Amino acid sequence: MARIKMVDEADATGELADLYARAKQRSVAHVVPDILRTMSLRTDFLLAIDAASRMHFSDGTLSRAQHEMIASYVSALNRCRY
């Protein structure tokens, strides 16, 4: 049982539904990641976090694959499934 109240994809409307659709398109698994859904009650905050995440994981000095590898390693160190 989730401890954080989240808006399910089926219940999302307006700006949140649009953001969910874009997140789902970008997802390799074609799902809305739970980490985004945890912020679904604050669409303004979710939009900012989503924009920062897209910038962080874009190619630059490091490739997206390298960003993902670092994020996965840090998550494993912290025993976090994300």
Order of helices and strands: HHHH
Measured between the Cα atoms of the first and last residue, the distance is 17 Å
Query: What are the segments in which pLDDT stays under 50 over at least 5 consecutive residues?
Result: none
Radius of gyration, whole Å: 14 Å
Please give the number of β-strands: 0
Strand content: under 5%
Largest sheet: none
The SS-based structural class is mainly alpha
Helix content: 40-55%
Quickly count the domains: 1
Can you count the helices?
Answer: 4
Shape: globular
Q: What is the averaged pLDDT score?
A: 88
How would you describe the overall organization of this protein?
This protein has 82 residues and is mainly α. The chain has one domain. 55% of the residues lie in helices and 0% in strands. It has helices spanning 14-26, 34-37, 43-56, 64-77. The longest helix has 14 residues, at 43-56. It is globular.
